[in-house]
Amino acid sequence: MLFIALLGFAAIFAPLSAGAPPGPGRPSQPSAGWAGRPARYCERVPVEEEPRPADVDNSGADAGTEPGAAPPDEGRRELRFAYVPGVMPGKWIRRWEERMPDIPLRSFVADGAAQLSVLRDGSADLSFVRLPVEQEELHVIPLYEEQPAVVAPKGHEITVFEDVELADLAEENFLDIAEMGGPEMALQVVASGAGLVIMPMPMARHFNVKDTVARRLHGAEPTRIALAWPKDATDEVIEEFIGVVRGRTANSSRQPSAKQEKPKRAPKSDRRGKASGSGAGGAKKVAQRYAPNPDKGRGRGSRKKGKR
Question: Is 0.70 topped by the overall pTM?
């Protein structure tokens, strides 16, 4: 049995000794033609164990983007402003869209204390406020005054007039807007017949509560609308909007969009030519602009008369 086992091993290793090509998973042996050279060891590696190329370094890429893809573009500058009820910003929005179509404009209503809080928390870049307001750390530009109005329930005696004097309403019961919870709630109370309220006419028209009438009131202190923005937030975009609100034209020198360098005109060429101080001929003769007068220096009858 031992002899048969030895014959089996000899049959297996016989091809290797004769220079036969190695089988899978076997080390290759040097052939006769490569005698004298150092043998190289080769090993077959399965596909699942082959080394993979190093991953591309995407440490600078944004999360959620494909490797090699361009980063997403940043959002365009957007100008945001708030306004109290009664302000109608439609004309300013139209002018802005005509002059600055590349910068979107967004607006929203902010009443009461919110007219300033939207500036402090960054919800708005500017705010149309109703004076008086706390002006600390703010730029405030007064714009215009509002017409005072008195609002009464329908059927009240003031409905027969277009204008009412404050002195004629001395016996009326006036409601406080702040105590009523705001202008809209105060108008609801007025509609119930509990009393009258004094407010700016634009505000009364803005809410337009049913069963109430508003009349112009004389003798009351008018309210004022102003534009406010933080002192540390002034830039060219805000300056452009301020100019639009204040009625500056697009070509005004105070508008940042108009402060662009105009192309300089090229100097006009000298039609008479340049004089050359050097050369054999000396200074170049300047050509005359007008032809000489042929009659200059002649007598009155020296020129021949004939048909012309």
Answer: no
